[in-house]
Design brief:
Cytochrome p450; 4-stranded mixed beta sheet; two-stranded antiparallel sheet; 8 strands; globular; disordered N terminus; heme binding; iron
Length: 489
């Protein structure tokens, strides 16, 4: 205990000598050795409580390491966005960088030319204009989602996963056949995402405090074995694309783009395999969770659902199916989506960043080399931006006649490490919400109690809610309308 106390005192002494400004305030730790221990279930709720009590930016300690949490919108903009050049790095934690990612996953690649090449390649395929190019493809899969709901509404979660997996597999690998949620490759990437959520939780693995544990063969076997399976899956997909290219297959894909521009991007084969795999794994999980969150929100908020349905009837009517071109004419629907993402964010905690130089904010200094993490959940509860933040209120996103373009919620990460797939995800959420509202009225089972936070823990294996889907125009009429060729403008 004397050794631990001495190390902590030495850290404070070095900090004071380094800079006259102090680190952001720190709540009292709840363990003398491990520091600020977070609960395994909904850890972001505890961070939110500390943010509310101690301020927008706080310092926590995990073992001997201090890290900073940011939980208010303006502080995130001031630090993560405006000073993003010195926050583009990732911290090196043994659990994430060495055991989970082993240097291959873009989410944990450090700052430098390699990450710049990776993001440049992703931007080519996923920038806003590129996402618009995919609208016909998204529409095809979204209409299939509606038909699945019509045939079997009980398995709405599986249908959402089928939509997202089919879409991202076509974008990533050119696969033009339906991919069900039960597909082994989809199950593998869902396991990868569960491992990611686990290692992202501060203090989840003792190896980050006691590094020698990584040499024990039995330690963190799930992370080590999981990486081997991920590597086999992603390399097999890349090999398959190369074989198809050699056989004259014309289907475009992100993996094909990487192989055709290998010299331009200067990425290794394992880098290309995991980069295309990242598009698959991240896109399939987050988009499915986002769609299910919209469905839950519609069922829970009947008054707001009726407002969106009334707008849909007034603008689109029943004679045609809504399309992307209707977006600007549906401000209430857009407000519903925005408020759902704020009310129940897809990812409550963002991936951590690392400062490469001292960062100054207010009267504080965040030292170079510090791990900094944005709490998406806490920022969604920012009372300076969102009055009565626990209330689901779509009117906060509306003026008298239009959607408020000046409102912004940072739901997909920050600065130079923001999620490059956010534009594809947003287009997917938009058209699916349009089609669901046009097709169905949703409600909850009156029997079961509802914990509306279940999707905050990621995409569940089992059905989380008992939702009811009532066709708004009769099943046969709806089926015929959805099956008619889409008019995309």
């Amino acid at each position: 205990m004397l050794l631990v106390s001495g190390l902590l005192v030495w850290q404070a002494f070095v900090h004071k000598r380094t800079n006259a400004l102090s680190m952001p305030p720190s709540p009292p730790s709840n363990h003398w050795l491990w520091g600020h221990v977070l609960p395994k279930e909904y850890p972001f709720l505890q961070i939110d409580k500390w943010i509310a009590e101690y301020g927008p930016v706080i310092t926590l300690r995990t073992g001997f390491t201090k890290h900073v949490q940011i939980g208010r919108q303006q502080a995130l903009i001031d630090i993560m966005e405006r000073q993003g050049t010195v926050l583009a790095d990732r911290p090196h934690a043994i659990s994430t960088s060495e055991l989970f990612a082993q240097g291959a996953s873009i989410g944990f690649v450090p700052a430098g030319e390699r990450i710049k090449s990776m993001r440049r390649a992703l931007h080519t395929y996923l920038a806003p204009r590129a996402a618009e190019h995919y609208e016909p493809l998204i529409t095809v899969h979204a209409r299939a989602f509606i038909l699945d709901l019509l045939d079997n509404p009980y398995d709405f979660q599986e249908h959402a996963k089928t939509f997202s997996s089919s879409l991202v597999l076509q974008v990533a690998y050119g696969k033009d056949t339906l991919t069900r949620a039960s597909d082994p490759s989809v199950q593998q990437v869902q396991d990868q995402n569960e491992r990611l959520r686990l290692v992202m939780s501060p203090g989840a693995y003792l190896v980050d405090t006691i590094p020698m544990l990584k040499y024990l063969p039995w330690y963190a076997r799930r992370l080590k074995d999981g990486f081997k399976k991920d590597k086999e899956l992603f390399e097999s997909h890349l090999d398959d694309i190369e074989t198809k290219m050699n056989n004259g297959d014309p289907n475009p894909s992100f993996a094909r783009h990487l192989l055709e521009h290998e010299e331009q991007y200067q990425l290794s084969r394992i880098d290309m395999a995991f980069l295309a795999g990242a598009l698959f794994s991240a896109g399939s999980d987050t988009t499915a969770t986002g769609i299910c969150g919209i469905l839950l929100s519609l069922a829970l908020h009947q008054e707001e659902q009726c407002m969106v349905s009334e707008e849909m009837d007034r603008i689109v009517g029943t004679e045609r199916v809504p399309v992307f071109g209707d977006e600007d004419s549906l401000p209430i629907l857009r407000a519903f989506i925005a408020e759902t993402i704020r009310w129940r964010p897809i990812a409550p905690l963002a991936l951590a960043h690392k400062t490469t130089a001292d960062v100054y904010w207010d009267k504080y200094c965040i030292l170079a080399g510090t791990t900094v993490q944005g709490s998406i959940w806490a920022s969604s509860r920012d009372p300076d931006f969102y009055s009565d933040p626990e209330k689901f209120d779509i009117k906060r996103w509306l003026t008298t006649r239009a959607f408020r373009e000046d409102m912004k919620f940072l739901a997909f990460g920050y600065g130079r490490r923001a999620c490059p797939g956010q534009h594809l995800a947003n287009r997917s959420l938009l058209i699916n919400t349009m089609l669901v509202v046009w097709s169905f009225h949703l409600s909850m089972s009156p029997i079961k109690d509802c914990d509306d936070r279940l999707y905050l823990s990621g995409f569940p294996h089992q059905r989380a809610y008992d939702l009811r889907f009532k066709s708004r125009m009769g099943s046969d009429t709806l089926r015929d309308a959805i099956r008619r060729p889409a008019i995309l403008t």
